[in-house]
Amino acid sequence: MNRLLLIIAGIGITVLIFSCSNKKAGNDATPAEQTELPPSLQSADKAVFLVRLSEKEQNELHVETLEVSSNFIDYSVTAPGVVFYAPEHSSIISTPINGQISKILKQEGSRVRKGEELYRVQSLEFGNLVSEYLQAFAEEQFQTNRLTRIKQLVEETISSRSELERATAEYQRAVASLRATYSKLKAVGVSDQEIKSFTGSEQIDPVLKIYAPIDGVIERSFVELGQSVNALENLSRVLDTRVVLVRGYLAPDDARLIVSGDSVTISKRENNEAVAKAVVTSINPGLDEDSRSVITNIILPTINGWPKPGENVRLEIITSSQKEVIAIPVEAITYDGNQAVVFVKKQNGIFEKRKIEVAEIRDEFVFVNSGLASGEEIAKTKVFSLKALSRFDIIAEE
């Protein structure tokens, strides 16, 4: 009896061990079976999603396609602008010496030409400059004649070589002094003709004449007749409004696309009427501290007095891509989450849903960095219908 009980207990233990072993093996096999996912969910980044249209769907959708190509693309950038005085076409008139305004020949609003007399400044300082020049001129004439005489005496062996050397040195000092006084007169704006006239005049007139440095209009006067002025004090401002500087304020992302020489259309801000055409002259390398924009500079001849300094204008800059890119219409692209996708035609009724990398979106076009190649054909209509069908195919596959 005891032997029978031992046999039954041994059989029970063996069955229990065998049962646990089979259960463990069954549990280990379960994960392997769960990894067998539908093809559409395996390696999603590398998977090719095809949308197959039935003959009925092809007839109902009438999907239009477009062959893509890589080209240099022209597009426009719009920006606000402000008109300023053009460099070398505006000038501040100032007095180079201390004195008193003895005559004002042109008033505000008067048109002047380059070299035309504007002011006369009576100045003791100017009189001293003229006096120094005349003394240096007389000394140079004396030393020139003396050197000539001594050279003749040396040739006749009447004078020694040392006297000739001394006369030559004094002549050179006189020439240097004359040049120095001449430079001082030129520095205060005296012309060569006036300097020449000083030597033929019996009296010194201590009046400095101030001339217009450019053609233009007296925009503003800062002094009155009889007013005492100090050296470098402003007298007036002359503007030549036939040429102006237009500064355009670009967003940093737009500025990187613009280069010098790009064409610009400038229009009135209130009605957007195109008025003038020009080219980009230069682009500032950094951000403007006040506007936080990149400034582009445009030198522009005015048309019938427009635009005027201080006026706000609108700019449209036409530029092109720096390298060949693929551009597709905006309506040809859709998004799967945050991922841009297009539908590439493989054959009649079959489209591949493909991910692309977008460089930027401009106006009506999308510039593609990667994901498409020249010569491929993409759907440009019924894109949302194709997207819906692609999701239906994935669900059905699962």
From TrEMBL:
What GO terms in the biological process aspect are recorded for it? copper ion export; plasma membrane copper ion transport
Q: What superkingdom does the record give?
A: Bacteria
Which GO MF terms does the UniProt record name?
transmembrane transporter activity
What are the CzcB-like C-terminal circularly permuted SH3-like domain coordinates in residue numbering?
326-387
One cellular component term (GO) for this entry is: cell envelope
Q: Which InterPro entries match?
A: CzcB_C (IPR058649), MdtA-like_BSH (IPR058625), MFP_Cation_Efflux (IPR051909), RND_pump_MFP (IPR006143)
Q: Would the keyword Transport turn up in this protein's UniProt record?
A: yes
- Swiss-Prot/TrEMBL keywords: Transport
All residue ranges annotated as the Multidrug resistance protein MdtA-like barrel-sandwich hybrid domain in the record: 96-239
| PROSITE patterns cross-referenced by the UniProt entry | PROKAR_LIPOPROTEIN
Record-linked PANTHER family: CATION EFFLUX SYSTEM PROTEIN CUSB, SLR6042 PROTEIN
Q: Give the family per the record.
A: Belongs to the membrane fusion protein (MFP) (TC 8.A.1) family.
Please report the name of this protein according to its UniProt entry.
Answer: Efflux RND transporter periplasmic adaptor subunit
Q: From which organism does this entry originate?
A: Draconibacterium aestuarii
What high-level taxonomic lineage is stated for the organism? Bacteria, Pseudomonadati, Bacteroidota, Bacteroidia, Marinilabiliales
